[in-house]
């Protein structure tokens, strides 16, 4: 691990803070200085509030001095994807629609992070309204991959991934609807984790597709992801889809699971479209588990090929409904040259939304429209059942499933920008996990010959995140990919 | 490549209340034609007798105690309104 403070994991920083070797103010200053030094190149942040971060850091130091420190996240700068509300801070969704919006309240995850003493740091770039796989759909800027500035960081949480990779945040939060945490994590050599649906409250997260959206962390280690999940998980009466379940101490529990595990390899994830270097690298990671004594066996997820199709019906249908609220009336962009109230809706939405958001609203409206509902939306929901059953059947034989996270390493800016279908297919290995509501993690597992990061996806069983973390932690401890940092 | 579809872009844009330019309409029709022809593959799946999934882990009958709680202040609720007057959101005239 690098010697600079801004590249250290939470576990190490927590001991430095606890022994008062460093203060939260010093750590925050280091992260702010790093951000100022590299973000003109990386462009991970839509905005940041240095004075506010330092005020939070001073409060953390005062708590610690008074003997009231709140645990490992107290004093740790946590970057926030710009779809998660932080009271008094901008909330843009990287859209012109919300360019001037300021959050009137905290998201539940924000409140929980603050309760844990974390420093909510900056507003991280994304594809507009989290719709995309490269951050090229942001209305403000395209974030660059820290490992190759000509390439994308992935998306939609590209800013959250790039910020952790470049030392501009210690951990960050993103949201994952079809792979928006795991895919950018894989492309940026960081850990990215999507919890079981319902484990983390969505209250205060700008809604994209409500039956698929989950908030989760980006970090430099699996243990850091476990710490962050422990802080943000839990039932919330403000989210009616939030699940009532015990939240264990994930960090302590991941050390209890020692394996060997039964691991499934789905052949459908290793076929056409998979880059040969990614395939070879992921196979090496699988070999690690075999050598460890795990039982590695083939499993079949026969409906995998329908995942992207199902997703682009369900996600667009839900988005067309969720985004109906942006009408130019109560908040958001209002057109200045509308003739009447209905014209105001048409023009405000035309001016406020970018092309991908419009495209998805149109598709979602179409699949829900009279005469087409059964053929598209209802059929997609039924195939969703089959995709979910595939996973649950596989879990009769295995504890977790290993796959590549992304079919290719980071692609060049502009490469897929004009071909929505090609862009949609970059989420082919991550989408099934959202449709089935499962937990999934991407961890660094190597680099291409040209130095681009490659990720291993591990898909776990519902609400068994501690075991999933243990499986990921085992690989991580035996390799040192995470200690590699980009040249910036 | 554009598949034959009966996606009537004017009708759908009207339902979605989005004003599209002629260029956007032409582009979206082609791009969404590609996406819809890709989605056609779902018709191959036998879904007879399969129940639809709306949520992976559905939670039913979520009740809250009927207790009044403080909400946002008027000031906070209106802070993002594009136009306001007398503690209310101002909108264009809707009745003649």
How are the elements arranged and paired?
The complex is a heterodimer of chains A (488) and B (96).
Chain A: H1 10-18, H2 24-42, E1 45-47, H3 50-65, E2 77-81, H4 108-115, E3 119-124, H5 158-165, E4 171-176, H6 182-187, E5 191-194, E6 214-219, H7 222-232, H8 250-254, E7 262-266, H9 276-291, E8 295-299, H10 307-322, H11 341-352, H12 355-368, H13 374-394, E9 400-404, H14 420-424, H15 431-436, E10 440-447, E11 453-459, H16 465-477
Parallel strand pairs in A: 2-3, 2-4, 7-8, 7-9
Antiparallel strand pairs in A: 1-3, 4-6, 5-6, 5-10, 9-11, 10-11
Chain B: H1 9-16, H2 22-39, H3 74-78, E1 84-85, E2 88-89
Antiparallel strand pairs in B: 1-2
Write a structural description.
The complex is a heterodimer of chains A (488) and B (96). By secondary structure, chain A is α/β, with parallel strands linked by helices. Chain A has one domain: Amidase signature (AS) domain (Amidase signature (AS) enzymes), CATH 3.90.1300.10. Helices cover 38% and strands 12% of the residues of chain A. Chain A has helices spanning 10-18, 24-42, 50-65, 108-115, 158-165, 182-187, 222-232, 250-254, 276-291, 307-322, 341-352, 355-368, 374-394, 420-424, 431-436, 465-477; strands at 45-47, 77-81, 119-124, 171-176, 191-194, 214-219, 262-266, 295-299, 400-404, 440-447, 453-459. Chain A has an 11-stranded mixed β-sheet, sandwiched between helices. In chain A, α4 (108-115) links the parallel β2 (77-81) and β3. Chain A is globular. The two termini of chain A are 17 Å apart. With 96 residues, chain B is mainly alpha-helical. Chain B has a domain at 1-45: Histone, subunit A (Orthogonal Bundle). Helix content of chain B is 32%, strand content 4%. Chain B has 3 helices and 2 strands, in the order αααββ. Chain B has a two-stranded antiparallel ribbon. Chains A and B meet through α10, α11, α12, α13 and α14 of A and α1 and α2 of B.
């Amino acid at each position: 691990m690098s010697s600079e403070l801004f590249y250290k994991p939470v576990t190490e920083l927590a001991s430095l803070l606890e022994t008062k070797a460093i203060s939260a103010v010093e750590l925050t200053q280091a992260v702010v200085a790093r951000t100022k030094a590299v973000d003109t190149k990386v462009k991970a942040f839509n905005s940041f509030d240095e004075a506010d971060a330092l005020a939070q850091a001073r409060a953390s130091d005062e708590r610690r001095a008074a003997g009231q420190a709140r645990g490992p996240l107290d004093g740790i700068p946590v970057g926030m994807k710009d779809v998660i509300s932080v009271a008094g801070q901008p909330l843009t969704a990287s859209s012109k629609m919300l360019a001037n919006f300021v959050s009137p309240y905290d998201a539940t995850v924000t409140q929980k992070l603050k309760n844990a003493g974390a420093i909510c740091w900056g507003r991280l770039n994304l594809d507009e309204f989290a719709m995309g796989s490269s951050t090229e759909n942001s209305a403000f800027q395209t974030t660059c991959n820290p490992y190759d500035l000509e390439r994308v960081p992935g998306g939609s949480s590209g800013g959250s991934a790039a910020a952790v990779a470049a030392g501009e945040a210690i951990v960050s939060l993103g949201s994952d609807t079809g792979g928006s945490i795991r895919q950018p994590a894989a492309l940026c050599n960081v850990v990215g984790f999507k919890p079981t649906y319902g484990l983390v409250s969505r209250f205060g997260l700008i809604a994209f597709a409500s039956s698929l959206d989950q908030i989760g962390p980006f970090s430099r280690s699996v243990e850091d992801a476990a710490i962050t999940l422990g802080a943000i998980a839990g039932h919330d009466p403000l989210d009616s889809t939030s699940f009532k379940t015990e939240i264990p101490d994930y960090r302590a529990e991941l050390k209890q699971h020692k394996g060997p595990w039964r691991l499934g390899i789905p052949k459908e994830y290793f076929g056409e479209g998979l880059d040969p270097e990614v395939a070879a690298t992921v196979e090496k990671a699988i070999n690690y588990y075999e050598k460890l004594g795990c039982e590695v066996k083939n499993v079949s997820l026969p409906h995998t090929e329908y995942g992207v199709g199902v997703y682009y019906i369900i996600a667009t249908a839900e988005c067309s409904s969720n985004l109906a609220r942006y009408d130019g009336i109560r908040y958001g962009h209002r057109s200045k040259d509308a003739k009447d109230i209905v014209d105001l809706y048409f023009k405000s939405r035309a001016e406020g939304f970018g092309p991908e958001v419009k495209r998805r609203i149109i598709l979602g409206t179409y699949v829900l429209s009279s005469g087409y509902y059964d053929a598209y939306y209802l059929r997609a929901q039924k195939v969703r059942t089959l995709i979910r059953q595939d996973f649950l059947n596989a879990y009769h034989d295995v504890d977790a499933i290993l796959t590549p996270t992304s079919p290719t390493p980071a692609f060049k800016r502009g490469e897929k920008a004009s071909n929505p279908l090609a862009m949609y297919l970059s989420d082919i290995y991550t989408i099934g996990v959202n449709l089935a509501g499962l937990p999934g993690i991407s961890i660094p597992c190597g680099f291409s010959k040209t130095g681009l990061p490659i990720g291993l996806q591990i898909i776990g069983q519902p609400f068994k995140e501690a075991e999933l973390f243990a499986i990921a932690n085992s690989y991580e401890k035996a390799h040192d990919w995470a200690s590699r940092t980009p040249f910036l | 490549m554009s598949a034959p579809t009966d996606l009537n872009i004017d009708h759908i844009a009207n339902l979605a209340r989005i004003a599209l330019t002629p260029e956007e309409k032409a582009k979206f029709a082609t791009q969404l034609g590609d996406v819809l022809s890709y989605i056609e593959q779902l018709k191959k799946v036998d879904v007879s007798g399969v129940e639809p999934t709306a949520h992976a882990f559905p939670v039913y009958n979520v009740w809250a105690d009927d207790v009044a709680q403080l909400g946002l202040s008027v000031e906070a609720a209106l802070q993002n309104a594009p136009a306001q007057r007398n503690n209310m959101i101002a909108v264009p005239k809707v009745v003649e």
